[in-house]
Model the fold of this input.
Amino acid sequence: MAKNGLSNLIQLLDYSNFIRSETLIILLYITDYNSELQKIAAFEGIFDKLFKIILSEGSIDGTIIVQDCLHCIQNLLRYNSSNITFFREMGFVKNLTHTLLYSPDNLDSFSLQYWSEQKVVNAAIVIDIVRIIAGLGNRQGNLSILQSGLTQCLIDLSLSSNAPVTLKAQTLTALTAIFSTSPQNQQFFTQSQTQPILNSDAYAAGYLRLPPRLATISLIDIALNGESGDENRMVDDVDSLKGHNLMFQVAALSAFESLITSNDSLKLEIIASMSHTTNEVNYDGSITHTAGSLLLEALSNLPTPEVSLDGAFDSQKVFFASLVLSHVLRYSEDARAMARNIPFNPSEDTDEDETVSLLHGIFGNLITCSRERSAADARLREKEFSSINRTEEPEKQGNQENEEEEVKQIDIDWTRLTVSYLILLSVWVWDSPATVSDILKESSNLQVLIQPIKQSSGVDALIQGLCAFTFGAIYKFNTGPSEVSKKDLHSIIEKQIGVDNIIQSLARFRSDKRFCKIGSPDDALAYAETPQEDGWWFDWNYVEFFKGSFMAVQRSVISEEIEETTKVAPPLPQASSPLPESTDNTDHEKVVQEKDSQIETHKQRIEELKVKNANMEMEMERVNNELGEAKSKLQALWEQGSPEVAGLRGDLAEGVKREETLRAELDKLNNELETLKQKEGEHKSASGELTTKIEILENEVKSNKEEVLRLKEQNDGLKSTNERDTNEIQSTKNTNETLQKENEHLKTQLEKHIESEKEHEDLLILLEDMSTKRSNDKNRMKQAGLEVSEDEGDEDDDE
Amino acid sequence: MDEDIGWKYILKYCIIGDSGVGKSCILVRFTDNNFYNTTTATLGVEFGSRIITLNNKEKVKVQCWDTAGSERFKSITRSYFRGAAGCLLVYSLSSRDSFNNLESWLNDIRKYADDNLTVLLVANKADIPYSDREVSIEEGENWARERELDFIKVSAKTGDRVDEAFDRSARIILEKLNKGAFQPKANKTSEAVLKIENSKNISSCC
Done:
């Protein structure tokens, strides 16, 4: 690596002439692949310089220089998590908001601006950069996007601006990435207001700003209807809107999925708003929709065959409504349960019959669909036949072909409708025994699914596969109490449909081009962008759901044995049994949950019994009335003395008997009600006990933890003292040793000393001896007459 | 992120030293106040940042580049020496080799980095018992004193004195800055300024 090469190159960006543009182009190549070079570029402060250029060139209004700068930033961040962290933590996310020329003060000019081709390109790169940052799945990153106002910017750009549809669609995919890991962003979105803008020459200003509505509603509206308004937008090139509109719808759908999939409260909110009465009628007669009513309207309105002949109904809308609702229902049994209570018909029609629920209504629509499909099929064949016969009449042929196309289109439309409903149903029944038993209440429902599986030809592979999948799912999850037992379904599979047929249908579905071409989340959007002949049929989420689930269905269909259906009958003896002491918190919680669900079922039963009770009472009254009438008649007859008396008497006796049995039944029911109530009370108290126990246990755990912490601290303290002590001991030992040595040394010295002293003494003694000897000798010498000097004698004395 | 507001300088740091001495752990302890027992060897360079307050008033943003220790990344990691304001030169108390290699690291720094670079010698893994130590504290202290470097003993595992390492070096950098050692945010382009900008490592916040 050349020394400082890259850094010198980056410095060249400070020029403001052609050198800068050339440098940019070189940097574009350098930063494309090598992540180490990308990091060094970031280290050398390239982001600062690039944003400075972008700003000086007019942000997204700028020329291709801006585009190059943005491309360079895109290169530096893509697949480089370290640089993304750098970008985020150094606060560059905010620069993106500025680059889009967005600020809360200029909302009006932001939502209505002129979009040149270059500007669209520039903005698209900025949005892709946002997607790269958010796509990392980094919560902090998505939080910084929210805090820098970028989320608001994207919402305004995609839902209340006059930006081109393609750009809006891209913005929605960026939002998809942002929502996927960030509840805060989800919440921010659901609380946002949007003001969609319709572009049309029909309005004096060239556009119409719709009244504000919640962002969620706008999003669903786009998913269902695409871009409202016509193609005359304020752009240089008019998009070929048909395809891009689909892309916009798909983008909205995926953004919605990302928004809702982990957001249970939003799911329930939307389901709750799914009723025909929640629409508000405005003063000018237009209707303000709620999120739910938009969906419900799309799902419940089935075109009449006459209308469909004109080709004027929108199967696409139903299709997207189904996908949207399936995203709402997926992963949430609560949402499924709530959705089962949605009425299918607008409330005005309900007087004649009991209301049909949405679930059953959809089955009704499926029946219509299958009828219309075969009708369209028949018409098509008829047309083909007639065209063969009339080849001699060329002037009519063109006409004929047009008609043929039309009929084909109708056929496809009906197929699409069928597929829509099946997608919704398959998600609805999945893992939801309650939904399954609701469906099985109506035996005709099953027939709609069975027919296409058995049909050997003339059925679209998608319909066949989805029918098999849905039927299999119903079979798999038919574990609750229902009208048709699992055993019955099993025999239907064995005798009517055939296991092989189901497996074949599933296999054919999986290998169908329309299904298997969606191999990754990006594919769905890509195919929507470039519409193909066979159309757009699945979003990634459903494909993924199907791929993850069909094996389970297949396995359960193949297996010979019918898994024992777990009876939902109340396990009463268990409820009153004492609780094992050793269970831990989670077990307790589980038990509590169980009890809760039991209480719930008991409550339901009590409700049912109450209703039954009321019915019984009513009937009793009726019987009493009849009885009274009969009695009075009898009286009259008695008075007349006619022969009818005997018969009437019999009637009377029968009536009395019936009354008696009814009374007895009523008593029985009352008793049962009483016991159930008691049981419920027991359960409640038991669950209360459990909660307190859990609390106690939690407290204990807490105190234990605290103690452990305290002990740890003590331990640490002790350790350190211990260390200190050992050190001290070591040093003491050392001194000790030196002392000992000294001691020894001293001892030897002492010994030596003692020895020399002894010698000294010996010498003294010797001297003494000598001196006495000498004095003796002197004396002797004196005595002998020899001269002896006195001095010496003195000397001797001294000694 | 309230703390994001008000920082005055960005200080570029790099962490260098032999592989396995705990450079990345020091960074993670500094930015996330966390410790992972199992980490993989850093490839190339990783980035982390945090805002610290000096002397109870001045806020600076520390931009920290954690480099790979292994030999094969040296050519890459050298690019980060130049342009850094602070450098943590790390060795491990449990590895004599990492201590012996300090000399060659310092030579690299002297060769490639600015003269104004503030180097702090960091002895990591202070949490390990004395019996496992291959290098004594005194040796490190002496080595640093001989080369006029600051010395600090830290433990990324317990978090002991990691923040202080950054605080202390940041304070030294700021002192140098106040004495005019760095040229914050050069003016516009001209040949002379470009040179100064070459050695620019502190930029004022926008």
